[in-house]
Amino acid sequence: MSTAQGARARARIEVTAAIKDEARRQLAAEGAAKLSLRAVARELGMVSSALYRYFPSRDDLLTALIIDAYDSLGESAERAHEAVAGAGPPARWVAVCEAVRHWALEHPHEYALIYGSPVPGYTAPRTTVPPAARVGLLLIGILRDAHHGPGGLEELPPAPEDLHAEADRIAADLAPDLPPEVVTALVVAWAQLFGLVGFELFGQFNRVVEDREPFFRHAVRQLGRAVGLR
């Protein structure tokens, strides 16, 4: 790459980062539904036509912010998991869940973007799926290690008859090497994990749960037992 090409590439990276930073500021102030490319361009002193060369539409900018948020959350969870890599599956489970909570408390507006109310008129493309799956894949990996490790997982009751077909389909899609009842319980636990975080972040625990860190740790340990972790 020539010096001129390198300079242009660096400039593009810097402008892209500035656009995203301003968009995140607007998310915090106005919410995702009111995100406007024209407003971002105005705050950055750019003409709209120049900004469109980086993000052709509001949806393209939203998608970039969503992918960044999922990747940031995934990286935080993966770092926490690596820090306790030598521990048993229950401790690793708790570490990942606590990392999700800590990230959400530090990035409330990004959390709201990916786990809050849908943005009117926006449909997330398939490119958001791999970043969104990072936390789930960590949890699946922990259960897989427990299932194939010494002692295995606790035996869970089978899914009710009217859920058999759906449980089999979910397991085939997400973790075909795990029992369907475990994968079904994992999906329930995954939903409850983000429900716990959302309740805390969006104020539903106000005047209900005061000492929230030990409450959360107790709750995710219960979730771990619900998926069969000994």
Salient structural properties:
Tetracycline Repressor, domain 2; Arc Repressor Mutant, subunit A; 2 domains; 230 residues; 0% strand; single chain; elongated; mainly alpha; 69% helix; 11 helices
Question: What do these coordinates show?
Answer:
By secondary structure, the chain is mostly helical. The protein folds into two domains: 56 residues, Arc Repressor Mutant, subunit A (Orthogonal Bundle), CATH 1.10.10; 168 residues, Tetracycline Repressor, domain 2 (Orthogonal Bundle). Helix content is 69%, strand content 0%. It is built from eleven helices and no strands.
Write the layout of secondary structure elements.
Layout: H1 3-30, H2 37-44, H3 48-51, H4 58-83, H5 89-106, H6 108-115, H7 129-132, H8 134-148, H9 164-174, H10 180-201, H11 212-226
Helix pairs in contact: 1-2, 4-5, 4-6, 5-6, 5-8, 5-10, 5-11, 8-10, 9-10, 10-11
Helix content: 55-70%
Please name the CATH architecture of the largest domain.
Answer: Orthogonal Bundle
| Radius of gyration (Å) | 21 Å
Number of self-contained structural domains: 2
Question: CATH homologous superfamily of the largest domain - what is it?
Answer: Tetracycline Repressor, domain 2
Give the overall pLDDT as a whole number.
Answer: 94
SSE ordering: HHHHHHHHHHH
